[in-house]
Amino acid sequence: MAGSSKPHVGVLALQGDFREHALVLRELGADVIHVRRPEELAAVDGLVLPGGESSVQDKLSRTFGLAEPLKQAIASGLPVYGTCAGLILLADRILDGITGQQTLGGLDVSVRRNAFGSQLDSFETDLDVPALGDEPVHAVFIRAPVVEKVGPQATRLASLDDGQVVAVEQGNLLGTAFHPEVTGDIRFHAYFLDKVRAHAH
Ligand code: GLN
Question: Structural domain tally of the chain?
Answer without folding.
Answer: 1
